[in-house]
From TrEMBL:
Domain of life: Bacteria
Keywords: Membrane, Transcription, Transcription regulation, Transmembrane, Transmembrane helix
Chain intervals for the UniProt region annotation (Disordered): 73-96
Native source organism of the sequence: Xylanimonas oleitrophica
Organism classification: Bacteria, Bacillati, Actinomycetota, Actinomycetes, Micrococcales
Membrane-spanning intervals of the chain: 116-135
Protein name: Zf-HC2 domain-containing protein
Length: 331
């Protein structure tokens, strides 16, 4: 166990490989730690899904249909790109091959095609199961403490004491031109460039900013920049938006409808709310009036987390190919 959580013990506990004394300690910790309990349940769910996965069998007529495709290929005669060159009058001719030799060669080719089809279809099922397991995202538990929220709000904008790396200067160089096309009124070119970068990096970007709020910092927090922090400040107050790939932990806060969507409210003085948007948990701390907060929430898309098999396989493919949100930034 590390840093008060199961850490590397989690996988061994899910597989039943811990010694009895360590397993008892781990289960005692799970009983009082919601984060580890949720991660353990997710690990067990992935193992149950893999155990239930069955071999994918090809349709009985698949091989025959693949072999029949050769009959639809036009002949090479008259095709200058595929026709074999004719030997010249002084060229040595190839040795004579009997009909039996050709029959044996064709039969061998057909057997190789059948084997390749069988191996390919069988491997498809294994690959899908592996991507399903990899596509499980971590459970995100926002810090509900008032101290955490007040610290975030006190460090909005450029602040050397704030966690993470502020990339706003590299994303929007001083004097750089940007086009605010498609964004709401009050969103200037600098804000437009910052929000455009957020969307291009795969994070959740608001469609517009409420009047009286501007982007004052854009930070990547964590060793791999796995948490995005977007600071908004102005006459309306201060707002800190934090995003992280994962699933919002069940039972977080109290459910309330704000800005046209269901959000988990962790506190209202100051505001601290969180919700799920696709595969990203959006966590907002705000010292603004409720109507301004609702304008901020409305500007974000509101698609929930899809726990289906195909979306989970797609998330696994994103992880394998390195296209998942949370990697190092690209200019």
């Amino acid at each position: 166990m590390t840093a008060g959580h199961l850490g590397s013990w989690l996988s061994a506990l899910a597989d039943g490989q811990l010694p009895p004394d360590q397993a008892e300690r781990a289960l005692s910790h799970v009983a009082v730690c919601g984060l580890c309990a949720a991660e353990l349940e997710a690990a067990r769910e992935a193992r149950r899904a893999l155990a239930a996965a069955q071999e994918v069998h090809a349709a009985p007529d698949l091989t025959a249909r693949l072999l029949a495709l050769s009959a639809t290929v036009p002949p090479t005669q008259g095709d200058p790109l595929r026709e074999r060159p004719q030997p010249g009058p002084w060229s040595a001719r190839a040795p004579w091959e009997g009909t039996l030799t050709g029959d044996l060669a064709a039969s061998a080719r057909r057997r190789r095609v059948r084997r390749a089809v069988g191996v390919g279809v069988g491997g498809l099922g294994a690959a899908a199961a592996a991507l399903f397991a990899v596509g499980n995202v971590p459970v995100v538990v926002p810090d509900p403490s008032p101290q955490h929220v007040l610290t975030l709000l006190a460090r909005t904008g450029p602040d050397a004491a704030a966690a993470g790396q502020d990339v706003l200067g590299s994303v929007v160089p001083p004097g750089a031109a940007a086009v605010a096309a498609g964004l709401g009124p009050g969103t200037d070119a600098r804000d437009a460039a910052a929000l455009d970068w957020v969307g291009r990096q795969g994070w959740v970007s608001p469609d517009a900013l409420p009047a009286g709020l501007d982007v004052t910092a854009l930070r990547l927090v964590g060793a791999r920049g796995e948490i995005l922090e977007l600071d908004l400040s102005g006459e309306a107050g201060h707002v800190v938006v934090r995003e992280q790939v994962g699933r919002l932990a069940p039972g977080t806060g109290t459910t309330q409808r704000l800005g046209g969507r269901e959000v988990a409210v962790l506190s209202s003085e100051p505001w601290h709310v969180a919700w799920q948007c696709d595969d990203v948990v959006v966590d907002v701390a705000a010292d603004v009036p409720q109507e301004v907060l609702e304008q901020v929430l409305t500007a974000f898309p509101g698609d929930g987390y899809d726990a289906g098999v195909l979306p989970r396989i797609a998330r696994g493919w994103s992880v394998v190919t390195g296209t998942a949100t949370g990697a190092q930034p690209q200019p």
